[in-house]
Amino acid sequence: MGFEVAGEAYDRFMGRYSQPLARRLADWLEVAPGQRAVDVGCGPGALTAVLVERLGADHVVAVDPSEPFVAACRERFPGVDVRRGGAEELPFDDDSADVAAACLVVHFMADPVAGLREMARVTRPGGWVGATVWDLRGSRAPMAPLWEAVAELEPEHPGEREFQGGSRESLVDVLERAGLRDVEAVELAVTVTHPTFEEWWEPYLHGVGPAGEAVAALGPDGRERLERVLRRNLGDGPFDLTAVAYAARARA
């Protein structure tokens, strides 16, 4: 689903939002020195970077199904054990981590319940298992301006609103169906200043994720129409965009 792209392309597209969000997630999961952590769906390493900073590379393991992302994460953090694989079958031992986290991943898992169940398996009893997903249902994700413009041009396009985990209730439900109890959920907001329209728009042209795929599918004429709508809505810049994610956690 649009993630077999270079790590740099993803960084330009989502890193400006995922990096500050990853720091807030680590705070909420009480990541502290001495712990061992697993980053599930690590991508190019937004959350991995925070975990390495706090725990050291030898206390962090990571996994992602995208080969380019695995390669990028390995290059950036050579001391981290980064493996290629899916959340539904983690290549790590039972009770081998103190905390397991998935930042902006649950809605892309083939089987989110199985993925969270695996995260609980590799986490020691009492450790935190946590995940974040943008508020897709409430149209508060970073991509919301793009999807609003797409809906204006193609009202039948499904967008991302119905992705599993994209609301507080849906994310909590995934954790509970995975066998986790006493699930807590909060909102985590990130505000990014975009200096120009071009700086905001250019990353959408590289086919990253569902939004990038939707833009590519429009063809040249459709992209021109979409850009006109977006320029009308956002202006030339600078402008601030605030994105809101739901975070849910539970003890393994």
From TrEMBL:
It comes from the Bacteria. Residues 38-129 form the Methyltransferase type domain. CDD domains: AdoMet_MTases. One of its GO terms (biological process) is methylation. GO terms for molecular function: methyltransferase activity. InterPro entries: Diverse_substrate_MTase, Methyltransf_11, SAM-dependent_MTases_sf. The keyword Transferase applies. Keywords: Methyltransferase, Transferase. The keyword Methyltransferase applies. Belongs to the methyltransferase superfamily. This is Methyltransferase domain-containing protein.
